[in-house]
Amino acid sequence: MASSRDSELADRLLAREDDALREAIARHGSSVYGIAMRVITEPTLAEEVAQDTFLALWRRPGAFDPTRGALQSFLVGIARNKAVDLVRREEARRRTREALLREAEIEPQCDMHALEGLEERAEVRDALGRLSEVQREAVVLAYFGGRTYREVAEELGIPEGTAKTRLRDALTKLRTLLASPERS
Amino acid sequence: MERTHDELKTLMAPFALGALTPEEERVVRGHVLSCKECQRDAESMRAAVALLTETVAPVQLPAGLTERIMAAARQDARSPAAAPVRQSMSLGRRWLSGALAGGLAVVVALGLLTFNLVRTQSQLDDSRAALTALVGGRGGFALSGSGRAVASLVPGDSGAIFVAAGFHHAPEGKTYQVWLSENGRMVSAGTFDGGELTVLHVDKSVSRANAAAVTIEPDGGSRAPTTAPLIATQ
Predict the structure, then answer these.
(1) Do B49 and A84 touch (CB under 8 A)?
(2) Which residues touch B104 (CB under 8 Å, ≥6 apart)?
């Protein structure tokens, strides 16, 4: 569920206040750029993705519905899809399975960086770590690697049905962790 | 190929993760709009994916990017979104006299583009992409499905303008109904009977909607969609 800060920002975006766009970039720009870099790694393309993401918010603020989730998730989701579109168009930009999985294991550099929500993120990373290895592998390939479930199956040498089941089980597991009392 | 509910149900996790081909995604999205069970499932999967988005480590924005985005947004507000359309539509330009308000000109241009879309089937996908980009730039929606029918919905001076093309006349006792999805609720935006080109004034703002669809309903329309969408926001 979105915070009241998100709702207030959404209202200002609907009222076409450009300060609201600036604030959205200040708050969520590094997450948006972070996911773009994670998917394509090429800074110029990642910048393009970040720019397109915020322009999409500016052009259609109504697409963000504060009752359905946080603005950060909404924006990161858009950026992920835009980055994946680029990767899918150019096969050569695809990241290898090894690189994607390695990155999913690296601990966040949490020195004195006063980034909002860092603790929560570390906890969520831990959540990803609590998936079984095969579940994590499937989810990371699909979400961060931009593979379709068929490509996941092919790359892992498993039947399509198994790939679908692994993805579903992984999301169901994440959902139970999300609902667990230590998060609230 | 028509897919069954049971088949589509197994695709909710890949759907939420964006791990479908664009064609499959169109089919699943259409099904989710009309199936309560799959809608709930997709919503629950989507919440788990939202959790995944939180695992991404932030990376500091490159210097100057914020200002470049702000400049692009300002540019966007100034330039009429119809500019690229006018170039490819000399006929439209001729009778769009200066007497027409800018907003109306955009709507007429969009109407022509929507209409032309169904004439150039060989390039249907490209044209759909163009329409999506164009109406997206106006804060509107482009609707399409697996057939020829397409539509666009753009904010007008008051409410919105709906333009549809490629629909057969609705069969006896039936009508087409336009829906806006607001906070997961489907709200009627009017009915129409099809034919070569339909232009409909919608007495509702689209700024709070996050998707749109067209279904076929009994004459007079329904309170909520009773059939799967023929076309929807992709």
Answers:
(1) no
(2) B156, B157
